[in-house]
Amino acid sequence: MKKFLISILILFTTSLPGFAGEIDMARLDAFAKNIIAEKSNMIGFPVNENVELEEFYRWYADSGLADVAMNNVGNPRAASLIALNTHQFENEVIDFFAPKYGFTKEDVWGIVTYSGTDGNNHGIYFGVKYLQSLSKLKPALCCQNNRKKLNELMVI
After folding, report:
1. First to last CA, the chain
2. Exposed e or buried b per residue across 102-140, where buried means at least 16 C-beta atoms within 10 angstroms of its C-beta
């Protein structure tokens, strides 16, 4: 089964460029120019725009990692069927924050996400599961649209 899943994953990721077609670099350049021009106008969602990542991205491209599709699916504390992951670093982040919130490294589980949406969805999921463990009542949530979809999937 493991070999089958890995074969499917390899087949899927190697065929992605075929789905994308030719890369329109002029379109991407225009997109980049527009995003950079709008950066100073960003208000609303709290995002730190004071970043200097040029050296990191140069390393990322030069190291070859920019050409690798990694996937951190699943529990970073458990063995993964997908060898192309960054679980070792994810665990370091979890272990760093565990004692700051009163947990030992042996008594903590978590994930590291890039987006607030993933973090919010996991928070809702675990919050609902915790509240359901205390009562037979289902928690009522009032949420924005993406969380509403998660709620519907969880039959809340």
Report:
1. 34
2. eeeeeeeebbbeeeeeeebbeebeeebeeeeeeeeeeee
Q: Which pair of tokens denotes residue 78?
A: 């458990």
Neighbour tally for 93: CB within 10 Å: 14
Residue 102: per-residue pLDDT: 93
The answer to whether residues 90 and 74 touch, using CB atoms and an 8 Å cutoff, is no
Distances (CA, A) of 63 to 55, 66, 125: 12, 8, 37
Domain chopping of the chain, boundaries: 17-107, 116-153
Token pair 């200097």 is at which residue?
52
What tokens appear for 73 in the block? 């699916």
**How confident is the model over 79-99, as pLDDT tens digits?**
888 889 889 999 999 999 999
Asked if 85 and 70 count as a contact pair (C-beta separation under 8 A), the reply is yes
pLDDT band at 140 (very low <50, low <70, confident <90, very high): low
Both tokens of 128, joined, read 């609902």
Structure tokens at 24: 């329109």
Q: Buried b / exposed e across 54-70, counting CB within 10 Å, b at 16+?
A: eeeeeeeeeeeeeeeee
- Tell me what pLDDT residue 4 has: 46
